[in-house]
Amino acid sequence: MAASLYTRLLTFTFGSRWWWFGQPWLELSTHSVWSTIMSTLDGTLSQVLVYVTIVVFLAIGLYAGRQTGNSKELFLASRRSQKALPLGLNFLATSVGTWILFSLPEVATIAGILGIFAYSIACVFPLMVFAWLGPIIRQKNPEGFSLVSYILKRFGYPLHILYCIIIIVYLGLFLTSEFAGIKSILSLLASIDGPIPVVVIAIVTTIYTAYGGFRASIFTDSIQAALSAIMILIAVIAIGTSVRFDHDKAVDSGLLGPTKLGWQLLYIMPVAVTFSGMYHQGFWQRTFAANDDRTLWQSSIIGSVTTFPVLVLIGVTGLIAVWAGTLTEEQEPYEAFFSLYKVTPPWVLGFTLVL
């Protein structure tokens, strides 16, 4: 258990059914009929939902990419072009990923509520570091769009090459983690096995990014962040209102008080995540894209204020899974979030798939 948690933390450091808004006045027999239909069409309807979402984001990405034209500047960086709100939403999108549905609930089952807050603080802390460090790097390298160009200018080719190698390794681990997470989610929630959906997602993302560059990426990330925050809030509320557990069991679990691992994560994770963020080019591109230093500070605050509660809410689902008994001894702790779907409305699965 500890080994799997440690592996997942290192991976991040280096970086269902069709929804159904069931009516409360429906009789149990009607719900049973609907459940039977859903179980029969589960795979087909889930794939329709997944692929429709992919097509929608492809269209959005291509639309946003039209503004790039033949401009190398807009394609690579869009320096000093973004306002605080869209940039703040981009920081939210860059800070979260499929890993939050696995790692945060798992940490909750082991390190308790202190572990949740420690992990969430660790993921928000780099945003404030970029708000402080970003203006310094931008001033010293105004013609650049990443730390890559600054290192080349300041330290020369040897360190520049080393930094680029680390970036490639980091990106490889990051993408592997994300795609593995997507595949696991599709398998756990929708019984969609095989690599085809993941390959399609990779191809579609590559197409609109190759067409529109950074402008397409920043536009789609803004929409994704806004939708994700709303859907996560609704899904967590649905879980909270659908799941019941014994208050005494929650108190006796020991997860509400401080734990040794929780205190350790409180000082280990901020350092690990912050320094790994120095190799995340998504953060640096967005740092250089801010209109000015004040905009960068504002966007960092917006990103922090939106990211922190999202992470905490997802982490709390791990506690709920333990208290409600949906996470059995046969399951791994990283399955805590998904175990709650045994007792939640089917439409919540649809929300998670879209995320």
Automatic annotation (TrEMBL):
Keyword Membrane: yes
Membrane topology summary: Multi-pass membrane protein
Gene3D superfamilies documented for this protein: Sodium/glucose cotransporter
One GO CC term on file: plasma membrane
Chief location category: membrane
GO molecular function: spermidine transmembrane transporter activity
A Pfam family annotated for this UniProt entry: SSF
Domain of life: Eukaryota
Subcellular location field: Membrane
UniProt KW Transport keyword: yes
Signal peptide limits: none
Transmembrane spans: 44-64, 84-102, 108-134, 155-173, 185-211, 223-241, 261-280, 301-324
InterPro entries documented for this protein: Na/Glc_symporter_sf, Na/solute_symporter, Sodium:Solute_Symporter
Keywords linked to the UniProt accession: Membrane, Transmembrane, Transmembrane helix, Transport
Sequence similarity: Belongs to the sodium:solute symporter (SSF) (TC 2.A.21) family.
The name this protein goes by in its record: Sodium:solute symporter
